[in-house]
Automatic annotation (TrEMBL):
Keyword terms, alphabetized: Transferase
Stored SMART domains: CAP10
Membrane-crossing residue ranges in chain numbering: none
Molecular-function GO terms, alphabetical: transferase activity
Family stated for the protein in its record: Belongs to the glycosyltransferase 90 family.
The keyword Transferase is assigned to this record: yes
Chain ranges of the Glycosyl transferase CAP10 domain: 184-437
Alphabetized InterPro entries for the sequence: CAP10 (IPR006598), O-Glucosyltr/Glycosyltrsf_90 (IPR051091)
Pfam families according to UniProt: Glyco_transf_90 (PF05686)
Top-level taxon of origin: Eukaryota
Protein's name in the database: O-glucosyltransferase rumi isoform X1
Length: 485
């Protein structure tokens, strides 16, 4: 008997379509074409939106014109855009409350003395206050604008790309501050530049406190990672406290204990009696380039090592562990293009830090006292100055060891509790000077921990997830009053 095959589903569909009247087939064709056209238009619209969307990962952003750097603009895929920007953040973030300490709870701790610098940093606006127009003026020098509302929502308006993942990790730090102290952060509107050198020159503006300035206008309030005595930029904790994935430096709450443990591998008398520096000298830093000429342990008592991060990344960073660089009695700090994040890792070693006449200061370096927790090095006759410090230290090892331990103790006090408390007090004091009610600009995007993690690559996400914060069981430390001097 001949075998009869059952018609396939596609064949049955063709037969049904063939049996339809011509007018019905024409209508079905028109409907299908309309659907395809709609899908095409939706895809084009999604592609266009993705091509214009700016993210904390640097998509569709150009480098800052005042500090160009190699950067490739990348387009965000529409599906990623939808997932990260539409689905990640809840429309109304859950409200978390922090109960005040009970009456019998331990006394609220005092902040470290260097927190007093917050008052000094904000002094230029004490009389004039901070207006919306002043903030807008700061936007001309900023890479991004950050608005915090309701103590739990964060909006970012991105202007320019930042080097590597600086913007992402800085915003992450702010998001974790909101998680740590939910509902306690006041509404603020700040401009932030995540590049190195400060730009608000003190001599160009009236400081409102009797100071001589070139303009009758108040200075633009601009946050960044460092400042100088000649600038009014407001220093803020740098991104590396949450990690620096590009060079495999872990978050500070992991890196400091590791460095301290590594510093105990040798006792003081077993450590090398020379000064040590390892870094990149080719960052437009005359001091670092001059330091290369001091690489002579016999003549100058110094070992100077070049750090090639490209080669280190190829070898898996096997030779750049910070905890293995604490075997010398002296560690040298030399500024780079501006300030350098390396200072906290150098101090963490417990060796005596030989700091070469710093021009820049970040938020915690105000806690440094020469010949108490570090040794100042003159840039004039640089090698000779290092040699004098090393020779003196080797004659008085117990005094040098004590100074090195004080530098390490300063860093131990600066745990992540201290970092978040500094951020908290800086934003609270800043908010008191605002004479307007902050609102999120129409061009800003709301960012939450989930949306930021969605945009991060695998290495970045690994670092970020290790620094998730939970609501604190205690209130921030108590800010010391302004220095009357």
């Amino acid at each position: 008997m001949p075998l009869h095959r059952t018609p396939s589903r596609r064949s049955r569909l063709r037969l049904r379509l063939a049996s339809l009247p011509f007018s019905s087939r024409l209508a079905l064709l028109a409907l299908s074409s309309s659907i395809l056209l709609l899908l095409f238009c939706l895809n084009m619209a999604a592609e266009d939106m993705a091509s214009r969307t700016k993210t904390v990962a640097g998509h569709n952003l150009d480098p800052t014109p005042w500090h160009p750097f190699p950067h490739v603009r990348q387009q965000l895929r529409p599906l990623t855009l939808f997932r990260c920007h539409v689905l990640s953040c809840p429309r109304r973030p859950p409200t978390l409350s922090l109960s005040p300490p009970k009456p019998r709870a331990k006394k609220r701790r005092s902040c470290p003395a260097f927190f007093r610098s917050i008052h000094r940093d904000l002094e230029p606006w004490r009389q004039t206050r901070i207006s919306a127009a002043t903030v807008a003026e700061a936007g001309k020098r900023a890479s991004m604008r950050v608005v915090i509302l309701e103590g739990r929502r964060l909006f970012v308006d991105l202007y320019y790309a930042c080097v590597q993942s600086r913007a992402m990790f800085t915003i992450w730090g702010l998001l974790q501050l909101l998680r740590r102290y939910p509902g306690l952060i006041p509404d603020v509107d700040i401009m932030f530049d995540c590049m190195d050198r400060p730009s608000v020159n003190r001599s160009e503006f009236s400081t409102g406190n009797g100071g001589l300035g070139g303009s009758h206008l108040p200075p633009p309030p601009l946050f960044r990672y460092c400042t100088t005595k000649d600038h009014l930029d407001i220093p803020f904790p740098d991104w590396s406290f949450w990690g620096w994935p590009e060079i495999n430096i872990r978050p500070w709450n992991e890196e400091f204990p590791s460095i301290k443990l590594g510093s105990q591998t040798l006792n003081w008398m077993e450590k090398e009696k020379t000064a040590y520096w390892k870094g990149n000298p080719y960052v437009q830093s005359p001091i670092r380039e001059a330091l290369l000429g001091c690489n002579d342990t016999e003549k100058w008592g110094a070992q100077i090592m070049r750090q090639d991060w490209v080669e280190e990344s190829k070898s898996g960073f096997n030779k750049s562990s910070l905890s293995s660089q604490c075997n010398h009695r002296y560690k040298i700090y030399a500024e780079g293009y501006a300030w350098s994040v390396s200072l906290k890792y150098i101090l963490a070693c417990g060796s005596l830090s030989l700091i070469i006449d710093p021009q820049y200061e970040d938020f915690f370096t105000r806690g440094l006292v020469p010949r108490e927790n570090y040794w100042p090095i003159s840039p004039d006759k640089l090698c000779q100055s290092i040699k004098v410090a090393v020779d003196w230290g080797n004659r008085y090892p117990s005094q040098v060891e004590a100074m090195g331990k004080k530098g390490q103790a300063l860093m131990e006090k600066l745990d992540m509790n201290g970092v978040y408390d500094y951020m908290y007090h800086l934003l609270v004091e800043y908010s008191k000077l605002q004479d307007f009610k902050p609102v999120a600009p129409p061009s800003a995007e709301e960012v939450c921990s989930e949306s930021l993690l969605c945009l991060a690559d695998n290495k970045q996400r690994e670092f970020l997830e290790r620094t998730f914060e939970s609501p604190s069981s205690s209130l921030p430390c108590t800010l010391p009053p302004p220095d009357i001097n």
